[in-house]
Task: inverse folding
């Protein structure tokens, strides 16, 4: 299959229907899969009600079939059409955070989406993305779109159309190139099907921001390491792994550099993941600086691209700095830990 690339850098006029968007929407209605940008990462979309189309997502990604997909909508009416009911608290969250990087898990409406989307669960995950292209494509297609990240399963999520093509060229019908995404890590998944709203996956909307609006929120146990966390089947799979083993180093740059030197003495090619503040303190085979610690959003935005660049550099080993777990830093460290398979080296303090 030849993968079509539609370049739509910017939607200048919201009223106008762009020919590229019309064509991509037609293909979606015909049961094809199309990748498109959202404000978090690129998604791989298919008609959520069409089982054959949804199966193409799993096939293209090589994704385990018990990992449910998020349904993307452009209007409240579409959201209402896939869920059984919207409790008042969920409605408040939608009003405050939609369109935006917040996914809500709600009881599903029977028969509204394919069983393959929900992996047999009684709930469905829904989100309205805050990206003009994503919204235009969903609206033009008239479909609720099941859309996981547009990467091969286990690879870092794509934040550019080039990342999508690196993983899926020839495996999907098309990709809409809207330039790099803004947030760079996936949406927050919040389970609203239980009494207390529970964060199943930290993401673009911080816990602090949720608390401000709804007062209290719980966090799912075993979010990080435990295999088979029951509420969100997707959590048990390793994600975002670069090819070389990645180690998170909780310590000073001097300590990290010492580790680099020890590994290089063993003949290994070593990569370092750092930020603007410390980049000058490392000598390694490749040093990638990803944003600034003064604004962890900048690190989140570039993280997946950095992980892919280490793959291209063919290093044997990567050491990454650790980041403060506050605000977006929670999502950032969650993804970094997954990429590291939980490996953290702690510096001994006197
Ligand atoms: P991805 O599609 O790669 O962004 O991952 C989607 C995430 O949403 C995974 O962690 C899924 O487990 C989670 N998810 C999707 N649907 C549900 C659901 N009905 N209940 C709980 N988690 C869900
Ligand atoms: Mg994903």
Result:
């Amino acid at each position: 299959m030849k993968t079509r690339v539609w370049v739509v850098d910017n939607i200048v006029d919201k009223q106008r229907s762009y020919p590229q968007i019309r064509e991509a929407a037609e293909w979606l209605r015909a049961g094809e899969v199309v990748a498109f940008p959202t404000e978090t990462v690129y998604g791989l979309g298919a008609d959520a009600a069409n089982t054959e189309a949804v199966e193409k997502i799993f096939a293209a990604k090589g994704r385990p079939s018990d990992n449910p997909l998020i349904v993307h909508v452009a209007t409240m009416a579409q959201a209402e059409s896939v869920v059984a009911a919207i409790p008042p608290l969920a409605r408040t969250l939608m009003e405050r955070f939609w369109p935006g990087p917040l996914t809500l898990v709600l009881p599903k409406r029977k028969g509204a989406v394919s069983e393959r989307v929900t992996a047999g669960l009684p709930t469905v995950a829904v989100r309205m993305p805050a990206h003009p292209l994503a919204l235009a494509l969903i609206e033009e297609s008239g479909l609720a779109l099941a859309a996981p990240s547009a990467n091969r399963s286990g690879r870092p999520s794509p934040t550019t159309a080039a990342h999508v093509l690196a993983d899926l060229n020839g495996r999907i019908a098309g990709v809409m190139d809207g330039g790099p995404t803004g947030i760079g890590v996936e949406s927050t998944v919040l389970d609203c099907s239980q009494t207390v709203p529970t964060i199943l996956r930290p993401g673009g909307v911080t816990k602090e921001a949720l608390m401000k609006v709804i007062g209290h929120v719980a966090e799912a146990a075993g979010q990080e390491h435990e295999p088979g966390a029951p509420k969100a089947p997707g959590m048990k799979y390793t994600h975002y792994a670069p090819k070389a083993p990645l180690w998170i180093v909780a310590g000073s740059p001097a300590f990290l550099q010492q580790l680099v030197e020890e590994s290089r003495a063993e003949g290994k090619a070593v990569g370092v993941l750092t930020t603007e503040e410390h980049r000058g303190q490392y000598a390694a085979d490749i040093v990638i600086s990803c944003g600034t610690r003064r604004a962890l959003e900048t690190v989140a935005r570039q993280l997946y691209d950095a992980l892919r660049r280490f793959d291209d550099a063919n290093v044997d080993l990567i050491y990454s700095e650790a980041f403060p777990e506050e605000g977006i830093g929670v999502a950032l460290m969650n993804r970094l830990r997954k990429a590291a398979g939980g490996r953290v080296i702690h510096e001994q303090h006197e």
